[in-house]
Amino acid sequence: MSAPRHDRCLDESAMQRIFADRHHAGAQLAEQLRQYESRRDVVVLGLEPGGVPVAWEVAKTLGVPLDVFVVRTVRAPRDPDLVVGSVASGGVSVLSHRAVTALGLPRATLDAPVRRALLELRRCEAAYRRYRLPLSLAGRIVIIVDDGMATRATMRAAVHAVRESKPARIVAAAPVAARATCDMLETLADEVVCAWTPESLSMIGLWYRYFSPTTDDEIRALLRHTDTHSHECGSHVLAHWDG
Fold first, then answer.
1. Domain spanning 22-69+139-226, CATH architecture
2. I want to staple 173 with a disulfide (CB 3.0 to 4.6 A). Which of 26, 65, 193, 233 is the partner?
3. Domain ranges within the chain, ordered by starting residue
């Protein structure tokens, strides 16, 4: 079941920007997640890069731990413009059965692209975490936060990946998301919380007055200011073929 949304149909080119910045957006989103406040079984994951400042505000308001979650795309071996899947934190690989079948790609040809994506993912995680271990997600309520969702691709990959860690519940959350994206995510996540759901969403940045890129240094600083009490979770590769 999803939280109530602001279903106002706003013209992106004419609207006033709703959020001052990602921190302001996170504070607004947190108000719709108050039912998870101060619960010891809740973890907030920020999708890097832009979702981390939003998630930081959510975690701070709710008084729960924060962690970063990384997703990288897997591209077709001979056509880098075609995305055939993704890899995510925890070493989980999510491949699109539909795309792979349509392109006629043998499974073995995807091993190298998956390895490359995993190497990039681990490099990014090492840069963000330094010596900070990832939080355990098993048996917990996991709130996955992004700064906006024009499409469901990144959040969809994150939900699939987090599901492999056997959480008790997955909540997909964003300050703004296309209405159709929220509707589709409701078939994947246990709950979807979208503060604003316009009919269409072409550019997330139009909803923010200040929308500069989130830097690695900013992500590291935000993680340092969270509860550093964490538990190690295993790293492994799982080939997950979706429908």
1. 3-Layer(aba) Sandwich (3.40)
2. 193
3. 22-69+139-226, 72-128
pLDDT along the chain (243 residues), means of 10: 46 64 96 96 96 97 96 82 82 75 75 88 90 91 95 87 95 94 93 90 89 94 69 36 37
Cβ neighbours of residue 237 closer than 8 Å, sequence gap 6 or more: 91, 92, 93, 114, 118
Give the pLDDT score at 121. 92
Q: Which amino acid is at 89?
A: S
**172, amino acid identity:** A
Q: Is 176 helix (H, G, I), strand (E, B) or coil?
A: strand
Residue 69 CB coordination number (10 Å): 27
Q: Tell me what pLDDT residue 238 has.
A: 36
What integer pLDDT is reported at residue 34 of this predicted model? 97
Burial zone of 217 (CB within 10 Å; 0-12 exposed, 13-18 middle, 19+ buried):
exposed
User: How many Cβ atoms from other residues are within 10 Å of residue 22's Cβ?
Assistant: 27
Q: Does 22-69+139-226 match 72-128 in CATH topology?
A: no
Query: What pLDDT shows up at residue 220?
Result: 93
* CA–CA gap between residue 139 and residue 124 (Å, rounded): 26
| Three-state secondary-structure class, residue 62 | helix
pLDDT at residue 16, as a whole number: 55
| One-letter amino acid of 90 | G
Provide the pairing of β-strand 79-88 with 71-76. antiparallel
In eight-state DSSP terms, residue 208 is B
What are 195's two structure tokens?
């503060």
The yes/no answer on whether domain 72-128 falls in CATH 3.30.1310 is yes
